[in-house]
Amino acid sequence: MNQPESDRRTRVTVLVALAANLVIAAAKTVGGLLSGSPALLSEAAHSVADSVNEVFLLAALRRSHRPPDARHPFGYGKERYFWSLLAAVGIFVVGGCFSFYQGFEALGRNDQESSGGYTVGLIVLAVALLAEGGSLVRALLQLRREKDAGRDPALRTVIAEDSTAVLGVLLAMAGMVLHLVTGSVVWEASASLGIGLLLVYVAFRLGRDARDRLIGESADPELRRGVEELLTSQAEIDNVAALFTMGLGLDSVLVAARVDLAPGIDSEEVERVSVRIKRSIGGNWPEAEHVFLDITNAPPRGGV
Predict the structure, then answer these.
(1) At a CB cut-off of 8 Å and minimum separation 6, what does 261 contact?
(2) How far is CA 52 from CA 107, 176, 209, 228, 293, in A?
(3) How does pLDDT run across 78-94, given as a tens digit for each residue?
(4) In this predicted model, what pLDDT tens digit does every residue of 178-225 receive, in sequence order?
């Protein structure tokens, strides 16, 4: 099961994010328990969710490259999107729901926390900001260096998680500082609710994208236009009656076309034309791993 170099780089990016989140989750949990800060505990849940999701993404990178078999003749490319969907659910349930709980629970109490505990919490968040920012920079550099990296759901998920984590840390810090300055827990509760809304939004976007790919999204419009132009340019093809494309994975596309051949082509020539067209499509678009042509002979012009 050979993985391309881009996948190996993505795997390193995910591992860096996982290591950062595990350390940060532990630090945020300890800091949150010491300070009693709902915003910091919400951020701890956020980091736990991100850590679990990165495990899902590592599974996606490994399992999506299994070769085709009798049960899955088109391969396992869509596993990448399945595990990305689970990651989105994890962000929603573990991160978003817990953040909402912490926010509403904080609004129901009016106790005063010590500034010492909050000082520890703010230090933890400052360290977390540096770690999350470093992970985000690495993911963005990979996105910039690799031409098609933006299509990789694993890399997109890491970027979304790290971006959300940076914003979440800033919200938590703002809520804690305003709580200390004003003495009102409303600021920190609002920060927790804001983190929850942020996580729910990110989970929705990631989940919608994974759903579209899982239920059979068409290939890139540029590829479809190119294939159609190639087919119509063939002298033996009279008409392209239908053209369908579907993404089967990150670098795998199914192409199916129903074409009418020009009149007067015999059966042996039909086979040669079909083989030549399939090779031409595969040569121009290597990701078109599965090409199917439904060829019919057009009726004679002016005939019945």
Answers:
(1) 236, 237, 238, 270, 273, 295, 296, 297, 298
(2) 29, 26, 19, 43, 43
(3) 888 888 888 888 888 87
(4) 888 888 888 888 888 998 898 888 888 888 888 888 888 888 889 999
